[in-house]
Specification:
Elements (H helix, E strand, L loop, with lengths): L1 E6 L2 E6 L5 E4 L5 H7 L4 H10 L7 H4 L5 E7 L11 H11 L4 E7 L8 H8 L1 H6 L1 E4 L8 E6 L5 E5 H4 L3 E7 L2 E2 L3 E2 L13 H7 L2 H5 L12 H13 L1 E9 L5 E7 L3 H14 E2 L4 E7 L9 H12 L2 E10 L9 H9 L3 H10 L9 H13 L1 E5 L5 H6 L3 E3 L2 H12 L5 E4 L6 E2 L2
Parallel strand pairs: 3-19, 4-5, 4-9, 5-6, 9-12, 14-20, 15-16, 15-19, 16-17, 17-18
Antiparallel strand pairs: 1-2, 7-8, 10-11, 12-13
Helix pairs in contact: 12-15, 14-15
């Protein structure tokens, strides 16, 4: 049977023995999506702006206010800003044609977004006519401490956001492998927070919590910190979209930063929740570009497979890795370690306020690798880095299956999880 997985900006196909295939893990969302497709993407976004949840319209909120800051996701997120930001700007100008609008790009602790990436994200018109500031988590002179988080970390955020008359966030909601869901409060934290603050939140004890998982907000200590950060920053209004597997806008939730986000997460559940199929081999992807640019981000897709692959089984994940590992320190932890379990144990033992950069991603990858054999299907040029990080390289799905059969057996069961990032596995 031929299968097709998102890979880079295209698809990766391969063949799987139909006699061993137990099924494909996907949400049954046909009816809900069909209803969404009755509207254009612009209509979906405009309708949410016209009918905000638990809030006045954005045009009313900005009336008489001068300094309007819109936080926006960076180049690592597939947020279709070209289809959202013009609507937000139009709504702001309805309320105040003379408002000073700044787009603050929420890079979190990622590298800075380049000019070409900004043009690709927003288009020439917005880049040439709207003030855009790219957040730098290491620019300590432009951070302001607005309070203390439940974790004990200082909540330091970008001065541009702290000094806004009205703070707005554009973004999207999808499952998140330790914050429960993306969107909402995440625009502030980690989006525009200092590196010092972010690492305090992403500590080993919080990451180790059984509640810090995909699709979980209740009792999630990481979410609790993020929620408080958004309150301290006075995030007043959000416009969060939901995307289907083809990156089309199928839902939009605007209004109160907390309740609009919750409404969005419930919609995400309705179109992305699927039951597990427990098998020896799970074949998945990281959802294609932009999330499969590096190994660092590819950990997300692995956690989707982790939720349905039996302990001791094999996870095969297709990831283009056009940007390599995603971080030198992250890479060196695995290349230089003697035992994968040491990475995990050291992270859990590290005091929260001494959390190191990328420790959390390494901890989660170590957790997956301790219980599953990971094979990454990618371009031949990535073979060395994958093997350096103590995972297995394969150049095709068929080659990966041959390797997996050597581990799990020639008659081992197989399930396909087409998108390991955007699927919520719930029994």
């Amino acid at each position: 049977m031929e299968i097709s997985l998102p890979y880079g900006k295209g698809k990766l196909t391969g063949e799987v023995p139909s006699s061993r295939l137990q099924g494909t893990i996907e949400a049954d969302a046909g009816a809900i999506l069909a209803k969404s497709y009755e509207q254009t993407e612009k209509e979906i976004v405009d309708n949410s702006l016209a009918n905000p949840i638990d809030s006045k319209r954005l045009s009313e909120l900005v009336a008489g206010k001068q300094n309007i800051v819109v936080i926006s996701s960076d180049h690592t997120r597939p947020v279709p800003s070209k289809r959202i930001m013009p609507n937000i700007i139009e709504e702001i100008k309805k309320g105040n044609p003379d408002a000073d609008i700044t787009i603050l790009v929420a890079t979190g602790t990622h590298r800075l977004t380049t000019h070409d990436e900004l043009v690709d994200k927003y288009g020439e018109d917005i880049v040439n006519n709207i003030n855009i500031v790219v957040h730098d988590s290491d620019d300590t002179e432009n951070m302001i401490n607005v309070g203390t988080l439940p974790s004990g970390a200082d909540c330091e955020i970008n001065r541009v956001a702290a000094e806004a008359d009205v703070l707005v966030a554009e973004g999207f909601i999808e499952p998140h492998f330790f914050a429960g869901y993306s969107g909402g409060r995440k625009a502030v934290f980690p989006g525009i927070a200092s590196r010092k603050s972010v690492v305090g939140n992403h500590n080993g004890q919080f990451i180790d919590s059984k509640h810090s998982r995909t699709g979980m907000l209740m009792h999630n200590p990481i979410h609790k910190d993020m929620l408080e950060a958004a309150r301290l920053a006075k995030l007043q209004f959000i416009v969060n979209v939901v995307l289907d597997h083809d990156k089309r806008i199928v839902g939009s939730f605007a209004g109160n930063s907390e309740t609009a986000h919750i409404a969005g997460t419930k919609f995400v559940d309705s179109i992305m929740e699927a039951k597990p199929i427990y098998t020896d081999i799970t074949i998945t992807s990281n959802g294609g570009y932009p999330l499969d640019q590096n190994i660092y981000q590819t950990v997300k897709g692995m956690t989707g497979a982790e939720a349905t692959n039996i302990e001791g089984g094999v996870i095969i994940i297709a990831s283009r890795l056009s940007d390599g590992t995603g971080g030198e320190k992250f890479y060196r932890q695995f290349k230089d370690c003697e035992k994968i379990s040491d990475i995990y144990d050291n992270a859990v033992k590290t005091p929260a306020l001494h959390t190191e950069q990328d420790q959390w991603q390494a901890q989660i990858l170590a957790r997956v690798m301790m219980k599953h054999h990971v094979i990454i299907v990618s371009d031949e040029s990535n073979k060395q880095i994958i093997e350096d990080m103590k995972m297995t390289f394969a150049s095709s799905i068929e080659e990966a299956l041959t390797i997996a059969d050597g581990i799990a057996g020639a008659d081992s069961s197989i399930a396909v999880l087409p998108d390991g990032v955007s699927t919520i596995i719930k029994a």
